[in-house]
Amino acid sequence: MWNRPRFDLKVRLTLRVAAVSAACFAAISAYFLITADRAAHARIDEIAAIVAKTLELQQGKVLWTASPRADFPNLDPVSAYVMTPGLCLTFRGTNGEMIQRFCSGAPVTADSPPQIFTAFYHGLFDPGREAARPVILRGIKLGEAVVSVDPAVQTAEAWHEAGRLMLALAIALPLLCVLVYAALARALRPTRLISTGLARIAAGDLTARLPPFDLAELTAVRDVFNHLAESLDTALAERAELTRKLIALQDEERRHLARELHDEFGQSLAAIRALAASARQTAAQECPSLLGECDGIARTASGMMETLRGALFRLRPPDVEELGLVASLEGLVAGWNGRSRGETRFTIRFDGTFETLPATISANLYRIVQEALTNAAKHAGATKVNLELAMHADEIALAIDDDGRSTDPAAKSGMGLLGMRERVAALRGRLSFEAGPQGGSALRVVIPLASSGPQALEHAA
Protein backbone atom coordinates (compact mmCIF):
# COMPACT_ATOMS: atom_id res chain seq x y z
CA MET A 1 0.00 0.00 0.00
CA TRP A 2 1.36 3.40 -1.01
CA ASN A 3 1.89 5.78 1.88
CA ARG A 4 1.95 9.51 1.47
CA PRO A 5 5.07 11.21 2.83
CA ARG A 6 4.64 12.72 6.25
CA PHE A 7 5.91 16.19 7.04
CA ASP A 8 6.38 17.87 10.35
CA LEU A 9 3.54 20.30 11.06
CA LYS A 10 5.98 23.13 11.79
CA VAL A 11 7.79 22.54 8.50
CA ARG A 12 4.52 22.36 6.57
CA LEU A 13 3.17 25.59 8.09
CA THR A 14 6.53 27.32 7.61
CA LEU A 15 6.57 26.31 3.93
CA ARG A 16 3.05 27.63 3.51
CA VAL A 17 3.98 30.93 5.14
CA ALA A 18 7.05 31.11 2.90
CA ALA A 19 4.90 30.44 -0.18
CA VAL A 20 2.39 33.11 0.83
CA SER A 21 5.21 35.56 1.58
CA ALA A 22 6.86 34.85 -1.78
CA ALA A 23 3.50 35.39 -3.51
CA CYS A 24 3.12 38.69 -1.66
CA PHE A 25 6.63 39.75 -2.68
CA ALA A 26 5.84 38.81 -6.27
CA ALA A 27 2.63 40.84 -6.15
CA ILE A 28 4.50 43.80 -4.66
CA SER A 29 7.19 43.50 -7.35
CA ALA A 30 4.54 43.35 -10.10
CA TYR A 31 2.77 46.37 -8.61
CA PHE A 32 6.08 48.22 -8.42
CA LEU A 33 6.97 47.42 -12.05
CA ILE A 34 3.51 48.51 -13.24
CA THR A 35 3.76 51.73 -11.23
CA ALA A 36 7.28 52.39 -12.51
CA ASP A 37 6.17 51.80 -16.11
CA ARG A 38 3.27 54.20 -15.71
CA ALA A 39 5.56 56.80 -14.13
CA ALA A 40 8.04 56.45 -17.02
CA HIS A 41 5.28 56.93 -19.60
CA ALA A 42 3.91 59.90 -17.67
CA ARG A 43 7.40 61.38 -17.54
CA ILE A 44 8.01 61.11 -21.29
CA ASP A 45 4.52 62.49 -21.91
CA GLU A 46 5.41 65.46 -19.74
CA ILE A 47 8.75 65.91 -21.51
CA ALA A 48 6.98 65.72 -24.89
CA ALA A 49 4.59 68.46 -23.77
CA ILE A 50 7.53 70.60 -22.59
CA VAL A 51 9.41 70.09 -25.88
CA ALA A 52 6.29 70.93 -27.92
CA LYS A 53 5.68 74.09 -25.88
CA THR A 54 9.33 75.12 -26.20
CA LEU A 55 9.26 74.67 -29.97
CA GLU A 56 6.05 76.72 -30.20
CA LEU A 57 7.75 79.53 -28.27
CA GLN A 58 10.78 79.30 -30.55
CA GLN A 59 8.64 79.60 -33.67
CA GLY A 60 6.65 82.46 -32.13
CA LYS A 61 9.86 84.31 -31.35
CA VAL A 62 11.03 83.90 -34.94
CA LEU A 63 7.80 85.34 -36.27
CA TRP A 64 7.75 88.19 -33.69
CA THR A 65 11.31 89.30 -34.44
CA ALA A 66 10.93 88.70 -38.19
CA SER A 67 14.44 87.31 -38.13
CA PRO A 68 15.56 85.84 -41.41
CA ARG A 69 17.81 83.41 -39.48
CA ALA A 70 16.06 80.09 -39.32
CA ASP A 71 16.89 78.54 -35.90
CA PHE A 72 13.73 76.45 -35.74
CA PRO A 73 13.57 73.78 -34.58
CA ASN A 74 16.32 73.93 -31.98
CA LEU A 75 16.23 71.10 -29.39
CA ASP A 76 19.46 72.08 -27.67
CA PRO A 77 17.95 74.47 -25.09
CA VAL A 78 15.36 71.98 -23.88
CA SER A 79 17.73 69.01 -23.93
CA ALA A 80 19.99 70.73 -21.45
CA TYR A 81 17.56 70.21 -18.56
CA VAL A 82 15.35 67.26 -19.62
CA MET A 83 17.85 64.81 -21.04
CA THR A 84 18.46 61.58 -19.17
CA PRO A 85 20.36 58.44 -20.24
CA GLY A 86 18.65 56.74 -23.17
CA LEU A 87 16.23 59.63 -23.85
CA CYS A 88 15.60 60.76 -27.45
CA LEU A 89 14.02 64.08 -28.51
CA THR A 90 12.71 64.29 -32.08
CA PHE A 91 10.90 66.91 -34.14
CA ARG A 92 8.88 65.36 -36.92
CA GLY A 93 7.38 67.42 -39.71
CA THR A 94 3.81 67.28 -40.90
CA ASN A 95 4.83 64.91 -43.65
CA GLY A 96 6.33 62.48 -41.15
CA GLU A 97 9.91 63.41 -42.00
CA MET A 98 12.35 63.56 -39.09
CA ILE A 99 13.71 67.11 -39.14
CA GLN A 100 15.84 67.04 -36.01
CA ARG A 101 16.75 64.32 -33.48
CA PHE A 102 18.75 64.50 -30.30
CA CYS A 103 19.56 61.37 -28.20
CA SER A 104 21.69 60.80 -25.11
CA GLY A 105 23.78 57.67 -24.87
CA ALA A 106 22.86 54.70 -22.71
CA PRO A 107 25.03 54.23 -19.62
CA VAL A 108 27.47 51.34 -19.56
CA THR A 109 26.35 48.87 -16.88
CA ALA A 110 28.33 45.89 -15.64
CA ASP A 111 25.29 43.71 -15.05
CA SER A 112 22.75 43.50 -17.83
CA PRO A 113 19.33 42.09 -17.10
CA PRO A 114 18.83 38.38 -17.76
CA GLN A 115 17.22 37.42 -21.04
CA ILE A 116 14.26 35.82 -19.28
CA PHE A 117 13.54 39.07 -17.42
CA THR A 118 13.98 41.07 -20.64
CA ALA A 119 11.52 38.83 -22.48
CA PHE A 120 9.09 38.96 -19.55
CA TYR A 121 9.33 42.76 -19.24
CA HIS A 122 8.95 43.36 -22.99
CA GLY A 123 5.99 40.98 -23.11
CA LEU A 124 4.24 42.61 -20.17
CA PHE A 125 5.07 46.25 -20.91
CA ASP A 126 6.01 48.42 -23.92
CA PRO A 127 9.29 50.06 -22.94
CA GLY A 128 9.95 51.53 -26.43
CA ARG A 129 6.67 53.42 -26.75
CA GLU A 130 6.90 57.01 -28.00
CA ALA A 131 5.13 60.07 -26.62
CA ALA A 132 4.14 62.64 -29.30
CA ARG A 133 2.73 66.14 -28.86
CA PRO A 134 1.69 68.39 -31.77
CA VAL A 135 3.51 71.72 -32.25
CA ILE A 136 0.79 74.26 -33.18
CA LEU A 137 1.19 77.95 -33.78
CA ARG A 138 -1.78 80.20 -34.65
CA GLY A 139 -3.88 77.16 -35.40
CA ILE A 140 -1.37 75.74 -37.85
CA LYS A 141 0.28 72.40 -37.04
CA LEU A 142 4.00 72.70 -37.63
CA GLY A 143 4.87 69.09 -36.71
CA GLU A 144 5.21 66.84 -33.66
CA ALA A 145 7.55 66.71 -30.70
CA VAL A 146 8.35 63.03 -30.12
CA VAL A 147 10.01 61.72 -26.98
CA SER A 148 11.11 58.11 -26.45
CA VAL A 149 13.38 56.10 -24.17
CA ASP A 150 15.74 53.36 -25.25
CA PRO A 151 13.97 50.03 -24.34
CA ALA A 152 17.25 48.54 -23.11
CA VAL A 153 17.74 51.46 -20.70
CA GLN A 154 14.20 51.22 -19.35
CA THR A 155 14.50 47.44 -18.99
CA ALA A 156 17.83 47.80 -17.17
CA GLU A 157 16.32 50.34 -14.75
CA ALA A 158 13.39 48.01 -14.07
CA TRP A 159 15.77 45.12 -13.48
CA HIS A 160 17.83 47.24 -11.12
CA GLU A 161 14.79 48.07 -9.01
CA ALA A 162 13.48 44.49 -9.22
CA GLY A 163 16.90 43.23 -8.16
CA ARG A 164 16.69 45.33 -5.04
CA LEU A 165 13.35 43.73 -4.22
CA MET A 166 14.74 40.27 -4.92
CA LEU A 167 17.69 40.98 -2.63
CA ALA A 168 15.27 42.10 0.08
CA LEU A 169 13.24 38.92 -0.51
CA ALA A 170 16.37 36.74 -0.35
CA ILE A 171 17.24 38.27 3.03
CA ALA A 172 13.77 38.63 4.51
CA LEU A 173 12.26 35.29 3.45
CA PRO A 174 14.78 32.98 5.21
CA LEU A 175 14.67 35.20 8.28
CA LEU A 176 10.87 35.11 8.22
CA CYS A 177 10.91 31.31 7.87
CA VAL A 178 13.25 30.99 10.85
CA LEU A 179 11.09 33.26 13.00
CA VAL A 180 7.89 31.51 11.92
CA TYR A 181 9.39 28.07 12.60
CA ALA A 182 10.59 29.17 16.04
CA ALA A 183 7.19 30.64 16.86
CA LEU A 184 5.40 27.50 15.66
CA ALA A 185 7.80 25.27 17.59
CA ARG A 186 7.00 27.20 20.74
CA ALA A 187 3.26 27.25 20.07
CA LEU A 188 3.15 23.54 19.17
CA ARG A 189 5.32 22.40 22.05
CA PRO A 190 2.28 21.04 23.92
CA THR A 191 1.64 18.63 21.02
CA ARG A 192 4.72 16.70 22.15
CA LEU A 193 3.15 16.29 25.56
CA ILE A 194 -0.04 15.09 23.89
CA SER A 195 1.93 12.65 21.72
CA THR A 196 3.82 11.36 24.76
CA GLY A 197 0.56 10.94 26.66
CA LEU A 198 -1.01 9.01 23.78
CA ALA A 199 2.07 6.78 23.60
CA ARG A 200 1.76 6.04 27.31
CA ILE A 201 -1.93 5.28 26.90
CA ALA A 202 -1.13 2.96 23.97
CA ALA A 203 1.48 1.22 26.14
CA GLY A 204 -1.15 0.57 28.79
CA ASP A 205 -0.18 3.32 31.24
CA LEU A 206 -3.59 4.79 32.00
CA THR A 207 -2.19 7.01 34.76
CA ALA A 208 -1.01 9.49 32.10
CA ARG A 209 -2.63 12.93 32.40
CA LEU A 210 -2.06 16.14 30.46
CA PRO A 211 -1.31 19.44 32.25
CA PRO A 212 -3.27 22.66 31.56
CA PHE A 213 -2.46 24.53 28.35
CA ASP A 214 -2.69 28.20 27.44
CA LEU A 215 -4.54 27.69 24.17
CA ALA A 216 -8.26 27.05 24.32
CA GLU A 217 -8.11 24.42 21.55
CA LEU A 218 -5.39 22.44 23.32
CA THR A 219 -7.23 22.80 26.62
CA ALA A 220 -10.26 21.15 25.01
CA VAL A 221 -8.02 18.33 23.77
CA ARG A 222 -6.54 18.01 27.25
CA ASP A 223 -9.98 17.73 28.88
CA VAL A 224 -11.08 15.03 26.43
CA PHE A 225 -7.76 13.19 26.82
CA ASN A 226 -7.90 13.15 30.61
CA HIS A 227 -11.57 12.16 30.61
CA LEU A 228 -10.83 9.32 28.19
CA ALA A 229 -7.87 8.15 30.28
CA GLU A 230 -9.98 8.17 33.45
CA SER A 231 -12.81 6.31 31.71
CA LEU A 232 -10.42 3.70 30.34
CA ASP A 233 -8.75 3.34 33.73
CA THR A 234 -12.10 2.83 35.41
CA ALA A 235 -13.27 0.38 32.74
CA LEU A 236 -10.07 -1.65 32.93
CA ALA A 237 -10.20 -1.65 36.73
CA GLU A 238 -13.74 -3.00 36.59
CA ARG A 239 -12.71 -5.53 33.96
CA ALA A 240 -9.72 -6.58 36.05
CA GLU A 241 -11.93 -6.99 39.11
CA LEU A 242 -14.40 -9.08 37.12
CA THR A 243 -11.54 -11.15 35.71
CA ARG A 244 -10.17 -11.73 39.20
CA LYS A 245 -13.57 -12.92 40.37
CA LEU A 246 -13.91 -15.22 37.35
CA ILE A 247 -10.42 -16.62 37.89
CA ALA A 248 -11.16 -17.14 41.58
CA LEU A 249 -14.40 -18.89 40.63
CA GLN A 250 -12.51 -20.99 38.08
CA ASP A 251 -9.89 -21.97 40.64
CA GLU A 252 -12.63 -22.86 43.12
CA GLU A 253 -14.31 -25.01 40.48
CA ARG A 254 -10.99 -26.71 39.80
CA ARG A 255 -10.49 -27.44 43.48
CA HIS A 256 -14.03 -28.76 43.73
CA LEU A 257 -13.51 -30.93 40.65
CA ALA A 258 -10.19 -32.16 42.07
CA ARG A 259 -11.89 -33.16 45.34
CA GLU A 260 -14.64 -34.96 43.44
CA LEU A 261 -12.15 -36.84 41.29
CA HIS A 262 -9.99 -37.71 44.27
CA ASP A 263 -12.89 -38.82 46.45
CA GLU A 264 -14.98 -40.63 43.86
CA PHE A 265 -12.83 -41.58 40.90
CA GLY A 266 -9.68 -42.17 42.95
CA GLN A 267 -11.46 -44.45 45.40
CA SER A 268 -13.09 -46.33 42.52
CA LEU A 269 -9.73 -46.94 40.90
CA ALA A 270 -8.28 -48.08 44.19
CA ALA A 271 -11.21 -50.47 44.57
CA ILE A 272 -10.66 -51.79 41.04
CA ARG A 273 -7.00 -52.46 41.82
CA ALA A 274 -7.95 -54.24 45.03
CA LEU A 275 -10.55 -56.34 43.21
CA ALA A 276 -8.05 -57.13 40.47
CA ALA A 277 -5.55 -58.32 43.10
CA SER A 278 -8.20 -60.45 44.79
CA ALA A 279 -9.33 -61.88 41.48
CA ARG A 280 -5.71 -62.74 40.63
CA GLN A 281 -5.33 -64.70 43.84
CA THR A 282 -8.53 -66.62 43.14
CA ALA A 283 -7.52 -67.21 39.51
CA ALA A 284 -4.11 -68.45 40.59
CA GLN A 285 -5.82 -71.21 42.64
CA GLU A 286 -8.79 -72.08 40.48
CA CYS A 287 -8.31 -70.72 36.92
CA PRO A 288 -4.71 -69.80 35.97
CA SER A 289 -5.83 -68.77 32.47
CA LEU A 290 -7.36 -65.60 33.90
CA LEU A 291 -4.12 -64.34 35.41
CA GLY A 292 -3.29 -62.26 32.30
CA GLU A 293 -6.67 -60.53 32.33
CA CYS A 294 -6.32 -59.76 36.03
CA ASP A 295 -2.86 -58.30 35.51
CA GLY A 296 -4.17 -56.23 32.59
CA ILE A 297 -6.95 -54.80 34.74
CA ALA A 298 -4.44 -53.95 37.45
CA ARG A 299 -2.08 -52.23 34.96
CA THR A 300 -4.96 -50.26 33.43
CA ALA A 301 -6.12 -49.16 36.86
CA SER A 302 -2.55 -48.14 37.80
CA GLY A 303 -2.18 -46.12 34.57
CA MET A 304 -5.48 -44.41 35.18
CA MET A 305 -4.41 -43.57 38.74
CA GLU A 306 -1.15 -42.08 37.42
CA THR A 307 -3.09 -40.00 34.93
CA LEU A 308 -5.46 -38.97 37.70
CA ARG A 309 -2.56 -37.85 39.89
CA GLY A 310 -1.28 -35.61 37.04
CA ALA A 311 -4.76 -34.17 36.47
CA LEU A 312 -5.20 -33.56 40.19
CA PHE A 313 -1.83 -31.85 40.33
CA ARG A 314 -2.82 -29.52 37.48
CA LEU A 315 -6.27 -28.87 38.92
CA ARG A 316 -5.13 -28.40 42.49
CA PRO A 317 -1.48 -27.23 42.63
CA PRO A 318 0.45 -27.18 45.89
CA ASP A 319 -0.47 -24.40 48.26
CA VAL A 320 1.71 -21.54 46.97
CA GLU A 321 0.89 -19.42 50.01
CA GLU A 322 2.31 -22.05 52.37
CA LEU A 323 5.23 -23.36 50.29
CA GLY A 324 6.17 -20.05 48.68
CA LEU A 325 6.40 -19.17 45.01
CA VAL A 326 10.02 -20.26 44.58
CA ALA A 327 9.51 -23.73 46.06
CA SER A 328 6.26 -24.21 44.17
CA LEU A 329 7.81 -23.31 40.81
CA GLU A 330 10.87 -25.47 41.49
CA GLY A 331 8.55 -28.37 42.25
CA LEU A 332 6.56 -27.68 39.09
CA VAL A 333 9.72 -27.68 36.96
CA ALA A 334 11.02 -30.83 38.66
CA GLY A 335 7.68 -32.55 37.97
CA TRP A 336 7.85 -31.65 34.27
CA ASN A 337 11.46 -32.87 34.07
CA GLY A 338 10.38 -36.15 35.64
CA ARG A 339 7.36 -36.68 33.39
CA SER A 340 9.21 -35.74 30.19
CA ARG A 341 11.81 -38.51 30.80
CA GLY A 342 14.57 -36.44 29.21
CA GLU A 343 12.67 -35.49 26.06
CA THR A 344 12.35 -31.88 27.25
CA ARG A 345 14.74 -30.13 29.60
CA PHE A 346 13.22 -27.48 31.88
CA THR A 347 15.41 -24.97 33.77
CA ILE A 348 14.45 -22.09 36.03
CA ARG A 349 16.39 -19.18 37.50
CA PHE A 350 15.33 -16.62 40.09
CA ASP A 351 16.63 -13.08 40.52
CA GLY A 352 15.42 -11.33 43.65
CA THR A 353 13.48 -12.05 46.80
CA PHE A 354 9.91 -13.33 46.48
CA GLU A 355 8.94 -14.03 50.09
CA THR A 356 6.98 -10.78 50.44
CA LEU A 357 5.13 -11.16 47.15
CA PRO A 358 1.32 -10.88 47.57
CA ALA A 359 -0.50 -14.20 47.54
CA THR A 360 -2.68 -13.20 44.59
CA ILE A 361 0.31 -12.43 42.40
CA SER A 362 2.11 -15.62 43.50
CA ALA A 363 -0.87 -17.83 42.71
CA ASN A 364 -1.43 -16.24 39.31
CA LEU A 365 2.26 -16.40 38.41
CA TYR A 366 2.24 -20.09 39.24
CA ARG A 367 -0.76 -20.64 36.96
CA ILE A 368 0.84 -18.58 34.18
CA VAL A 369 4.05 -20.64 34.37
CA GLN A 370 2.02 -23.85 34.47
CA GLU A 371 0.11 -22.92 31.30
CA ALA A 372 3.30 -21.76 29.56
CA LEU A 373 5.12 -25.02 30.28
CA THR A 374 2.13 -26.99 29.02
CA ASN A 375 2.10 -24.98 25.77
CA ALA A 376 5.86 -25.39 25.27
CA ALA A 377 5.95 -29.12 25.96
CA LYS A 378 2.70 -30.30 24.37
CA HIS A 379 1.92 -27.83 21.57
CA ALA A 380 5.29 -26.38 20.52
CA GLY A 381 7.26 -29.64 20.90
CA ALA A 382 10.17 -27.88 22.61
CA THR A 383 13.27 -29.75 23.80
CA LYS A 384 14.61 -26.88 25.92
CA VAL A 385 12.55 -24.52 28.05
CA ASN A 386 14.27 -21.80 30.10
CA LEU A 387 12.41 -19.80 32.74
CA GLU A 388 13.63 -16.66 34.46
CA LEU A 389 11.74 -14.78 37.17
CA ALA A 390 13.17 -11.42 38.20
CA MET A 391 12.05 -9.02 40.91
CA HIS A 392 12.56 -5.31 40.31
CA ALA A 393 11.76 -2.26 42.41
CA ASP A 394 8.26 -1.73 41.05
CA GLU A 395 7.52 -4.78 38.90
CA ILE A 396 8.12 -8.47 38.49
CA ALA A 397 9.23 -9.87 35.12
CA LEU A 398 8.79 -13.40 33.84
CA ALA A 399 10.65 -14.63 30.73
CA ILE A 400 10.08 -18.08 29.21
CA ASP A 401 12.08 -19.10 26.12
CA ASP A 402 11.86 -22.39 24.24
CA ASP A 403 13.15 -23.90 21.01
CA GLY A 404 9.81 -25.25 19.83
CA ARG A 405 7.60 -24.41 16.87
CA SER A 406 6.81 -20.70 17.18
CA THR A 407 4.30 -20.83 14.30
CA ASP A 408 2.09 -23.45 15.92
CA PRO A 409 -1.43 -21.90 16.03
CA ALA A 410 -2.37 -23.89 19.09
CA ALA A 411 0.53 -22.38 21.00
CA LYS A 412 -0.46 -18.84 20.02
CA SER A 413 -4.23 -18.87 20.19
CA GLY A 414 -5.09 -21.76 22.46
CA MET A 415 -7.06 -21.65 25.68
CA GLY A 416 -3.81 -21.73 27.65
CA LEU A 417 -2.57 -18.43 26.20
CA LEU A 418 -6.03 -16.93 26.62
CA GLY A 419 -6.00 -17.92 30.28
CA MET A 420 -2.57 -16.36 30.71
CA ARG A 421 -3.75 -13.13 29.12
CA GLU A 422 -6.75 -13.01 31.45
CA ARG A 423 -4.58 -13.50 34.52
CA VAL A 424 -2.06 -10.89 33.38
CA ALA A 425 -4.89 -8.46 32.60
CA ALA A 426 -6.37 -9.06 36.04
CA LEU A 427 -3.04 -8.01 37.55
CA ARG A 428 -2.83 -4.91 35.25
CA GLY A 429 0.29 -6.33 33.65
CA ARG A 430 1.62 -6.78 30.10
CA LEU A 431 2.09 -9.97 28.11
CA SER A 432 3.83 -10.57 24.78
CA PHE A 433 4.26 -13.83 22.89
CA GLU A 434 6.57 -13.69 19.87
CA ALA A 435 9.09 -15.70 17.92
CA GLY A 436 12.46 -15.85 19.63
CA PRO A 437 15.60 -14.33 18.06
CA GLN A 438 17.22 -17.78 17.79
CA GLY A 439 14.02 -19.59 16.83
CA GLY A 440 11.33 -20.98 19.06
CA SER A 441 9.06 -18.75 21.14
CA ALA A 442 9.60 -16.03 23.71
CA LEU A 443 6.96 -15.25 26.35
CA ARG A 444 7.33 -12.05 28.35
CA VAL A 445 5.16 -11.08 31.28
CA VAL A 446 5.55 -7.88 33.32
CA ILE A 447 3.35 -7.35 36.37
CA PRO A 448 3.44 -4.10 38.38
CA LEU A 449 3.82 -4.52 42.10
CA ALA A 450 2.18 -1.23 43.07
CA SER A 451 0.01 1.04 40.89
CA SER A 452 0.85 4.69 41.13
CA GLY A 453 -1.80 7.40 41.07
CA PRO A 454 -2.58 9.65 38.13
CA GLN A 455 0.44 11.57 37.02
CA ALA A 456 0.48 14.54 34.71
CA LEU A 457 3.04 14.90 31.97
CA GLU A 458 4.83 17.82 33.56
CA HIS A 459 8.13 17.48 31.76
CA ALA A 460 8.71 19.69 28.77
CA ALA A 461 9.04 18.00 25.44
UniProtKB/TrEMBL annotation:
Q: Which organism is it from?
A: Bradyrhizobium guangzhouense
Record's SUPFAM superfamilies? Answer: ATPase domain of HSP90 chaperone/DNA topoisomerase II/histidine kinase
Q: Which residues form the HAMP domain?
A: 185-237
Gene Ontology CC: one annotated term:
membrane
Q: Which GO terms describe its molecular function?
A: phosphorelay sensor kinase activity; protein dimerization activity
Which PROSITE patterns would you find in this protein's record? HAMP
Give the main localization category: membrane
> Which compartments is it annotated to reside in?
Membrane
Q: This chain belongs to which protein, by name?
A: Histidine kinase
Which CDD domains does the record match to this protein? HAMP, HATPase_UhpB-NarQ-NarX-like
